[in-house]
Amino acid sequence: MEVIQADDKKHVVSGDRAQDELADYPWVIRTPLKLCVDFISSGFRLVRPYAPQLIPLAVFVSAIPALLFFSFSSGWFVWRSIAVGWEIPLYLQYGDGVSPYTSVSLPALVSRQAYDISLHLQVPTNPSNIDLGNFMVDITITSGNNHTVATSRRTALVFPKFSTPLSIIWNKPGMAELNIPMLDNVEFGTVSAFARVEIGRRDHWKTIRSGEGRELSVSSAMLRGVVVSRKERRAK
């Protein structure tokens, strides 16, 4: 009891000293300062009995940012450690006497990780592409030592573009998007691989017509690989 009374006495003395110091200021400054001091003092008096319970709570609240930081860092590390999807642009070669083609080096792969690989084309809906009719898409994936890992051929077709008043919002005028699945659930067994992609008809329509529609015109091409989870692999 004596300790508490001594503390209260010190608080009263310090309060009187603060009041004397505030009296030296003009009333325009003194009144807001007095209100702030009284408010802070009242808050301390109300909180003081609950200090033993509030200190652990304050420590816990201050630790939340650190916990969030470590959680985010751990998630980022795991995300960087596991296989993720990838996509690379393709720059087709024309005029070499064969169908448009290109060879690219695939991004770093995860060995024994399954991928779904697809080709995404943006092509003009001009008469030449439409008259070409069905064409083939050929992909061959090889390892660093030139060993064939996977190969696939798919057929595709460019349909005429039927525009609507709202289609200009999400499509470029005169363009069509072709999404062609090439390989499903394929494992490379290596961390480095190369892909050769060929698009078009190998016969070039040489025996038909006068030369039009022999090659597919492509505005942009993208090769995409999507990681197949173990759950999806069991479903397939």
TrEMBL record:
GO annotation (BP), single: lipid metabolic process
A cellular component annotation (GO) from this entry: endoplasmic reticulum membrane
UniProt-listed Pfam families: Seipin
Ranges in coiled-coil conformation: none
Localization annotation: Endoplasmic reticulum membrane
Top-level taxonomic group: Eukaryota
Regions crossing the membrane: 54-79
Bilayer disposition of the protein: Multi-pass membrane protein
Keyword terms, alphabetized: Endoplasmic reticulum, Lipid metabolism, Membrane, Transmembrane, Transmembrane helix
PANTHER family named in the record: BERNARDINELLI-SEIP CONGENITAL LIPODYSTROPHY 2 HOMOLOG BSCL2 PROTEIN, SEIPIN
Name this polypeptide is given: Uncharacterized protein
